[in-house]
Amino acid sequence: SATIGYAPMLLLLSVGTPEQAVGFAQAFDGTVNHTYRRGFVSLQQSAVLARNNLRLTLVPQPLDPAGPSDQTPTVPLPPGSAASGSAFYDTVVWFGSTRTSLALGQTLSPRLRLHEYASYSAHGGLGSATETLYPRQYQQAAGAGLSQTLTRRDTLTHGLDAQRTTTSGRAQVYVLSLRETWAHVFSSATSGQLAAGLAYAREADVPEE
Fold first, then answer.
1. How far apart are CA 160 and CA 116, in angstroms?
2. What whole-number distance in Å separates Cα of residue 204 and Cα of residue 192?
3. What contacts 204, CB < 8 A, 6 or more positions away?
4. CA-CA distance, 59 to 71, in Å (whole number)?
5. Sign of CA dihedral 68, 72, 78, 83
6. Which residues of 182-195 are buried (b: 16+ CB within 10 A; e: fewer)?
7. Which of 20, 80, 150, 159 is geometrically suited to a Cys-Cys bond with 154, CB 3.0 to 4.6 A?
8. Which of 95, 77, 76 is nearest to 86 (CA)?
C-alpha cells in the first residue's frame, strides 16, 4: 500500500528575541508499506519547506572582559548587517527539513516480535545568510526492539536506540539509550504503559574540513 499527503501550515516563529513573525510552510509526506506473512516493511519520506518575512531588532553585545554578561543573549548578526550599522533586520528567509525512515518488523514466534528502524533527517536555513539564524542540523538514528507477550493483557518491550546529531560548524552529539516498556490492557477502551530507561550522551567538536 502507499499513501501521499500534503498540508499547508501557518507558523509563529521566534529566534530568541521579543519579535515574532508568522510564516507559511508546506509539508509533503509519502509512505510505502508492504506486509508479508511474518512481518512488514515500511518506507517513509517527508519534507517541509517554509518561508517567512523575518523582522528583528539587532542588539549587538560586545564581549565583557570581566566575565560572562548577565544580559539576555542575542541572535548572531546576519552577514553584512553589522557592517551596515543598521539596527533593524528585515528580510525574507527560507528554511526547510527532510526526513527519510525505514522500519521493519518480524514475528519470531506467537509471543515474540522484533522491529528495527533507521532514519536520516536534516533541517535548517536555505542559503548562507539564513543559516546564521537557522543553523543546519543533520541527524542519523537507528534502533531495535523486542516485544514479548507475557499474557493476553501484558506486553514487555526491550529497546536499544542510537542517535548522532550534527549542527553545522558547531558540534556533534551522540546519544545511546536503553529502554524497557511494560504495556497493560485494562479493557477494550483503556490501556496503559510504564517505561524506564538509561541514556548516555557525548558531545564532540565538528572536525575541521
1. 10
2. 38
3. 171, 172, 173, 174
4. 11
5. negative
6. ebeeeeeeeeeeee
7. 150
8. 77
Exposed, middle or buried by CB within 10 Å (0-12, 13-18, 19+), for 73? Answer: exposed
pTM for this structure?
Answer: 0.72
| C-alpha dist (Å) from residue 202 to 38, 54, 68, 169, 189 | 38, 34, 25, 17, 41
Measured CA to CA, the distance from residue 149 to residue 108 in angstroms comes to 12
pLDDT digits (tens, 9 = 90+) for 95-126: 899 999 999 999 999 999 999 999 999 998 88
